From TrEMBL:
PANTHER family per the UniProt record, alphabetical: GNAT FAMILY, PUTATIVE (AFU_ORTHOLOGUE AFUA_3G00765)-RELATED-RELATED
Alphabetically ordered keywords of this record: Transferase
Database matches in Pfam families: Acetyltransf_3
Source lineage: Bacteria, Bacillati, Actinomycetota, Actinomycetes, Kitasatosporales
Alphabetical list of InterPro entries matching this protein: Acyl_CoA_acyltransferase, GNAT_dom, N-acetyltransferase
Species: Streptomyces cellostaticus
Record-linked Gene3D superfamilies: 3.40.630.30
Name by which UniProt lists this protein: GCN5 family acetyltransferase
Domain N-acetyltransferase, first and last residues per copy: 2-160
Keyword Cytoplasm: no
SUPFAM superfamilies to which the protein is assigned, alphabetical: Acyl-CoA N-acyltransferases (Nat)
Gene Ontology MF: a single term: acyltransferase activity, transferring groups other than amino-acyl groups
Presence of keyword Glycosyltransferase: no
Length: 177
């Protein structure tokens, strides 16, 4: 079963492969990252790790048994007890419930590991799969938005229904994988 892991320096090669392999698939439903993202990937990866170390973001890789990255599930703009949730799952792993499981796991981690009380998310109207994942994970529609010039919906998820903090047991694995 894939494991949600807090982003580490050694994830870089598998993460870059994941982004390259799925670029066209992702671009069908979310704005493309652009050539600069790939050209400056190592620099960008180091910057993400620095943001994570500062506590303003928490980046996670969904790692398969072979060490391959099957998805990303991230919390960005962490402030005032809340954060923005973003995620993407590899095309070859789509349709197996991994996104829903990973988003639910991250909601639990956000509450019990990171002390957050609310998460925000958004999805384009033409991305029915992502909208379904958000609903299955307990997010509610709170309004309309634009994502990369495309119409979408904004979602909110209170984390009050998760149990009390569990300490380190609620944190994702940081073991090499």
């Amino acid at each position: 079963m894939p494991e949600l892991q807090l982003l580490r320096p050694d994830h870089a090669p598998a993460l870059l492969a994941f982004e390259r392999e799925n670029r066209a698939y992702f671009a069908a439903s979310v704005p493309d990252r652009g050539e600069d993202y790939f050209a400056r990937f190592e620099e960008r990866h180091r910057a993400l790790l620095a943001e994570q170390e500062a506590g303003v973001c928490y980046f996670h890789a969904l790692v398969g048994v072979e060490g391959e990255v099957l998805g990303r599930v991230n919390l960005v703009d962490v402030a005032d007890g809340g954060a923005e949730l973003g995620y993407r799952i590899a095309e070859r792993a789509a349709g197996r419930g991994l996104a829903t499981r990973a988003v639910r796991e991250l909601c639990d981690l956000a509450a019990n590991g990171y002390g957050l009380t609310v998460l925000r998310a958004a999805a384009t109207l033409d991305n029915a799969a992502s909208r379904a994942v958000l609903v299955r994970a307990g997010f509610a529609v709170v309004g309309e938005t634009q994502l990369g010039g495309r119409p979408g919906l904004s979602y909110l998820r209170s984390l009050e229904d998760f149990s009390a903090p569990r300490g380190d047991a609620g944190r994702p694995s940081s073991a090499p994988g």
